[in-house]
Amino acid sequence: MANRFGVKLQSRLPNLAGIYPFSAPITTTTNCSSETQKSRIVCKKRALGCRFPRRVVLGIGVSFWSQFMSMAGIIGGKSFMASARRKGAIEQVLKNVEWPEQFPFRDEDFQRFDESSDTLFYEMPRFVTHIDDQAIAALTKYYSEVFPSSNTPGVAVLDMCSSWVSHYPSGYKQERIVGMGMNEEELKRNPVLTEYVVQDLNINPQLPFGDNTFDVITNVVSVDYLTKPLDVFKEMSRVLKPGGLAIMSFSNRCFFTKAISIWTSTGDADHVMIVGSYFHYTGGFEPPQAVDISPNPGRSDPMYIVYSRKLATA
């Protein structure tokens, strides 16, 4: 059975007047670390949940995916978020989706609680990790399974929204591995990069690279900060080689005040659908797919992948 993204949802996604049933609350990395950045950003106080409300002006979002699943009678009245905890459920989110004709999100869905300059926010380097060690290990293992072999002639990799670490396999090398990020000191410390670019994609989403340049593009726990995602994904499509792979990885950890509103008001399964929609509405990509690589559900940070390949030319 196709996953109909539409029905009521075609007219408006999500229903901002409703109430979203958080079963896996968004946590903030900002309030769980000191200003001196001496501690890890990831909040360890899971008992508290680090719950935060969405901005009042936009209301409290509904999980549009669980809404649809309920309407379709697939899981009855139960939240899809609860169902998504089952092994393999996340992988089904992007299967046979019947997408609305038009991109279903509005400008206000990409607003943030803190609309001050991102350059100022990222001015001070943060030499910390944003997901726990088990999630990092799971991501590194995934990369080892899908990346081109180390030192493959002609291979180029772009790590978008990069920092002082990219979580690539130990010793991984290519002739060209480019990092794009917001803090030069962090990028300078990244041992895997052969070069780097400091750029705010929310101000200038145009990538300073030629067409058909990269074999792989990665983005780790930062897709939720993009305020112009379709512009960025169009640029990703342009700079990827035909058949090139784009890997968006994310958890439920974030700088809450800088994440887009549609992200902070929804849950994990919804995030998969949101990122999948970026690939779909950009065009030029194969149908996106989702993978749940969470290493220890309920006891470590969840970790999800949404990936796609640029369509090969005829």
UniProtKB/TrEMBL annotation:
Organism: Anisodus acutangulus
PANTHER family the record matches: OSJNBB0011N17.9 PROTEIN (PTHR43036), S-ADENOSYL-L-METHIONINE-DEPENDENT METHYLTRANSFERASES SUPERFAMILY PROTEIN (PTHR43036:SF1)
Membrane-spanning segments: 56-77
A Gene Ontology biological process term: alkaloid metabolic process
Family matches, as SUPFAM superfamilies: S-adenosyl-L-methionine-dependent methyltransferases
InterPro entries found in the cross-reference section: Methyltransf_11 (IPR013216), SAM-dependent_MTases_sf (IPR029063)
Keywords linked to the UniProt accession: Membrane, Transmembrane, Transmembrane helix
Domain Methyltransferase type: 184-247
Keyword Transmembrane helix attributed: yes
Protein name: Methyltransferase type 11 domain-containing protein
Single GO MF annotation: S-adenosylmethionine-dependent methyltransferase activity
